Predict the structure.
Amino acid sequence: MTKASLGRRPFYVHIATLFILLFTLLGGALILLQYQQSMQQGLEHERQSFQQYRDQLALALNLNERPARMSLSLLRSGQLAAMTDLEARLAYLPQLAEVLANSASYGAIYAGYEDGDFFLVRKLTPRAKERLDDAPPASYLLVQSLSQGQGEYLYFDKRLHLLERRLMPDYRYDPRSRDWYKEARWRTGIIVTHPYLFFTTMEPGMTLAVESDDRRAVLGLDTGVEGLSALIGGLALPSHSQLVLFDEFGTLLATDPQQLPSFDQLSRLPMLSALNHPILTRLQQQIATQPTLLHGPSEQTLSADDRSNWLVNLSSLGEGSPFYIALLVPTEALTAQARQEALHNLAWTLAGLLLLLPVIWLTARRTASPLLALTREAERIQHFDFSDSPGPSSAIQEIDDLARTMSGMRLTLGNFMSMGRALAAERRFDSLLSRILHETVAAAQAQGGCLYLAQDKQMTAVQAIWQQQPLECDKVHWQAELLGGLYHSERLSLPLDADNWSQYLADWGPFPGQRQLLSEPLYNHRQELIGCLLLILPSCSEAELAARTSLIEALAGMSASAIENQRLLEEQKQLLEAFIELIAGAIDAKSPYTGGHCQRVPELTRMLTEAACAQSQGPFSDFKLNEEEWEAIHIASWLHDCGKVTTPEFVVDKATKLETIYDRIHEIRTRFEVLKRDAYIEALATRLPEAERLASQEAVAPIWSELDKEFAFVAECNLGGESMDPKKLEQLDAIASRTWLRTLDNRLGLSRDALKLHGEALAPLPCLEPLLADKPEHKIPRPAHDQLAAHNPWGFKVKVPTHLYNRGERYNLAIGRGTLTEEERYKINDHIIQTIRMLERLPFPHHLRKVPEIAGGHHERMDGKGYPRQLQGAQMSIPARIMAIADIFEALTASDRPYKPGKTVSQSLTIMQSMVREQHIDEALFTLFIESGVWRDYAERFLSPEQLDEAQCQALLATGPATVIPMTHASS
């Protein structure tokens, strides 16, 4: 900034000369003119406000009546007037309810018939319910009917469902005796009654009525005017003023709700005098004695008994309207502001005349130029433009000081914002530490510095710089003797002479001359010391050192927050990754036959994804992943089978068709049956001679031999190694039809849940049972929470079996291929449904939102026949298609499955080639899988040497990766 020039004067001297001539020439004239204008403006503003109030009330009343008139016009030509009984009239209830819903002020709509019948639909507002006895809580509409002398009350809810129907034998009402009925009969068109209090709700309002076209009935609608009082209460009226709405007789209709008397104890509407306002009382007297007063708009001034004057504006709501509006404003309120402003301006003029000097043109020129420059400087700061530029200079001391202060503020804010943006942009912890030190050194104009972090209960240098050159952190040691006070929240500021330099900073290099050492501690939000910023500043004055110290303190707080946030993010990422791997490990550990699947699939997915990203030509040349997308694929691949935590082990590990979890009491009961049978046979055998006993054994030998063969056949079927053709099923049915005699109760020893499956019927003992049975108790019902609606929120398109499990013996042995029933296959496939549902419930951050889609898509197919959503290939992301290939290849080559041995690589690739042709997997990705050699790298790392049949693989791949070799394969 420029130095202060000679001849500077205080700023108030220059400002005083600016105003003296202005007040001398214009002060008196402006005060008088302003007073007159303020008076006129006050009166004109009051008239305009009155006109606006009148227009708003007229519009509100018109908008309230217009729908009512339209509805009555439609109803008069309808069939409601022709209806002769209650049930027929109730058919019009929806239409009448819709009319009442048009406005909150509509209270009831009804029809009075020429034979004395009466049909009314009333909206049950809280006030109406208070005045009615025992209305149902959920009631919304009340139908009051008087048909052929019989009175009834019918209560309906908002959906027009009948809640209650009450006979009202004492209900007596003759509509033909009412004024609205008579007046509608006498006159054509829609009539409007004078305002009155509704009998049921004690609300002020009017009745609109019209005679039906067939002259059989008069239709009426009650509309309240309390909404006009609420409208008046919401108007911004002048202080101590009052606005009232009344009719030609002075009957009060609406005013501010706070001043409106209660209607509950009244039998008719009150007059204006009921408001206890002397001006309104006098106005009511004038209306009674001067009927012409209401023939047109008028403005008059009335005096109260306390000699206060009031300006009264009076007008009708519109041409032909029976309602009038009056605004009462005290004249004191109209003139108070003008008098106050005049006195205020006079005082300023008199004070200014004593201070001003006739040099306004020179002062304005000298004052305006630097002020304009400072305005532009402030606008640059407002728009976050902190670029360096020369500041304005001025002969006025205050302006010059302000310019220098603003320039320093701009520089400080610029450094602070620059460092904040730089720290916010860093994602890597090492880069963040380097940026913190470099930005702090630059902002504080230091010559060097070092950043220490608390690690393993001691301070360790992580970044160091001296004279714009990096220093090796091993050479920058923590000086506990010098910096130990930082643990007690003490900032260190130390002048550096040759002795201090050689004692504490000798490793930094030769002594550079007199310097200032400043050490600022870094604290986290728990006020724990997490590090320290050590800076070497050039020598400076105490004021400049204090300014730099304040800046460094602010930067240190920002740096500590950035370091702590980055550490927390890293720790959360590490915790999340460890937790994910823990879940995957638990899933693998759950079954000894799938151990390692959840760990091998992520590795194979990573390998194939890296191959896709490495392509510079071909279908994946544009496929690139950033760090966050890699993180999403990593998490999705580790969690792709997390739903298996819900899959029972006995289904996952089912090695034979009859293997399951069952109550072994059945096996023990069978042994008891055998013991009983053996005891009986032994008792019979002891009674036979030896010759007959040998003859019996010879006779039973063919039967035993046949049973041995049949059991061997059943045992072979149980393995599930071969498909069950029709001949085998016929043989199985023949064996199943054999019967055996059961003498023991098959319910004894069962749990309560198992007994529920048996039902109530009990077969008499002994009884014959088939050798292989499909019993009702074998069918486990599917619980309601396991059902899946057709239009479920996840878009799953799978067929859900009726039963949760079917453990029928013949049913399981007849499985066509493999060992799983339809119910068990669904339970196996259900893991991907559970995976998607579990992952979609997790609050993933924005960059991980695709994890459920990637993890849940590896069982989809390119032709849309996969599960659970039956997505087409174009609907699947590339990572999801990659994971499908990884999951299939791992499942085919895995050697830890109970139902099949691990296939060789050539067999697996042959099967996958067939799957490409069947549009099961992505052809382009499978080609990449082959050509990149990912299959070989995976096999060398995770498969046994005998599975990697290199020669057969090369012969297979020589025909091209997409060549199809038909081969039966098992599902992955």
